[in-house]
Design a protein that fits this description.
The complex is a heterodimer of chains A (152) and B (362).
Chain A lengths: L8 E3 L2 E2 H9 L3 H15 L3 E15 L6 E16 L4 E8 L3 H15 L4 H27 L2 E2 L5
Antiparallel strand pairs in A: 1-2, 3-4, 4-5
Chain B lengths: L9 H15 L4 H10 L1 H11 L1 E2 L1 H10 L4 H12 L4 E4 L9 E6 L10 E2 L40 H7 L30 H9 L3 H13 L6 E16 L5 E16 L5 E8 L3 H14 L10 H7 L2 H10 L5 H20 L18
Antiparallel strand pairs in B: 3-5, 5-6, 6-7
Helix pairs in contact in B: 2-4, 3-4, 3-5, 4-5, 7-9, 8-9
Classes of the chains: A alpha+beta (152), B alpha+beta (362).
Amino acid sequence: MDYGRSDDAVVANYSHGEALRILAASRPASIRAVAERILDDLGEVVVITNRTGLAMLPYQDTVKGTAFHLGEVLVAEAHIAVPGRGVEGYGAVVGRDLEQAMAIAVIDAAMAAHHDTASIAELLDAEHAYQREADRQRLRKVEATRVQMETF
Amino acid sequence: MAYVATRGGEHAIEQAERLFRSDLGTISKDRVEGIRSSLPYLVDRLMGEASLYEPDLAALALAQAGGDLYEAVLLLRAYRTTQPRIAIAEPVKQPDLFTVRRISAAFKDIPGGQILGPTLDYSHRLLQVGVLTGEDYTPEPVIPAAKPAPATQPSLTDWQKAQGLIAEHPVETIAPEEIPDLTREPLLFPVPRAHKLQSLARADTGGTLALGYATTRGYGDIHPTVNEVRLAEAPVLLRHPRGTVFSAGRVRVSQAEIISKSKNLELGFSATFGWNEVKVISAAILDRATSQPNPHAASTEEFVLYHTEPVESSGFCIHFKLPHYVTFQSTLDAYRRVKADGEASGSKPVIKEPAKKEEVAL
C-alpha cells in the first residue's frame, strides 16, 4: 500500500502521503503533545473548517470490475491557515476525533512551513515503528492460521 | 364497539416512550464502549446495513435501541442524514486490502494459500456456562507464527481468468464522483450493476440470507460454491487540498465471490462494511441469481432489492400496528353495506365453510 510515494519527501524520508497516513493512525496522546508544542510558536492559526462529515467509499467489484459505493465513512477533518507563514494545513481521520484531525492539520501546516521538522520527524519515526510493529504482530497471528488442506 | 378516528393521547405516548427508555436504564459512555468492544460483529452488521461506518455511533444506536437491530439501523441512517458529504474517497481495490482471512471452497491450492483468520468455522459450539457461576472465560492466546503473513493477498479471479476458467470482462473506468449513488438517486429497474452492488452492500443480512438460501433450494438456478471469502481492512483514501492521496484510516470490510456451476462457470460478487460472511456470501449468490437471463420470480432484481432493504421493509411491516381506524372503518362500512344489500334482496351472501375436521376435545 504505497500512498503518495511519488511526492517528494517532506520530512525526513517521508512523502506527504506517508506522513499524513502515519499521523491519521497515530496514538492520540503522542500526536497532540507534538501539535501543542508546535502551536506555541507557529503563529496565528485561522481555522477554515473543523467538522465531521461523510466520505463515500467506492469499491471495486473483483468479478466484473464495476465500481460501486460500499457506503459512507464518518471522518473528522480540519483545515487551517497560518497567515504569518503563508501556509495551510489539512488533516482527516476516520471517526469523530476532531482533536486528532486538528493536530494533524497543525503538523501538516508546520511541515509546509518547514517548521520544527525535527520534532515531526521524531513523531513520525516513533509512530511509524509502532504501527508497523502492531501490523506485524497481527499478521504473525494471522499467519498461524495458514492451513494446508488435503483431499482424499 | 365503534371504529372511529382518534387524536390525542400525548400523555400516554410520552409515558410509553419513558417506559421503553426506563426499561433500558441509563446509557453511559462505558456501556457504549462495552457494546463496541464485546459485540464487534453485531456492530459490523449494523454499520453495513446502515451504510455508515462509525463503530462508536453504531454501538450507541444499539444501546439506545436495546439491541433492536432495525431500530438501530434507522437511528444510524437518520444520523447519517445530518452529516454533510465532504469527500468521495478513492475506490478500494483488492490489492489494497489488509487481509486477515481468505479462503476458497472451490480451489484448494490458491495463489497466496488459504488463511483461516479469525473464525469459528471448525470449532465446537459450546456455551461456557461456568461464566454464570463466576468462572471467567479467558480464551487461549494465539501462538504467533515466526514470520508474519503477507499484508495483502493476490486476486483469485485474476488467476482464474489467466487459466481461462472464467470470462474476462472489460473494466469500465469511471470517476468516483460519477458512480451511481443510491443515496442520491432512486432505485430504478433494470438497475445499473453499481446500484445493485450498493443496494446489496447495505441490505438486511437476514433478508439476503433468506432469499439467497431460497434461490439455492430451488427458487432459482444457482448452485454456488464459495470461490473466495475475504475479511480485511480497507484504507480510506482521501485527497488533501494540495492533491496528495493519503489513508485517513482503515475500515473493516468483507467480500465474497461465489462460483455457480449451473451452465458455465459464472461468478457472483458482494462486499459490505464490517465482517459479515453470511451477508456477503448470500448477497453474492443473489448477485449471480439476479444476473441470470431469465431469473426465477424470486430472483429478479426488483424482488430481491426491494425486499432486502432493511429500513423500508421493517418500517412498512411495523407501520401496520399504527392506528388504521378510518381506513378499517371504511372497509367495515363497505362490508356491512354489501351484507345489508344482500339481506334486502333476500339472497344471503354465501360463505363457504371449510370442510369440518374431527373436533378435538380441549
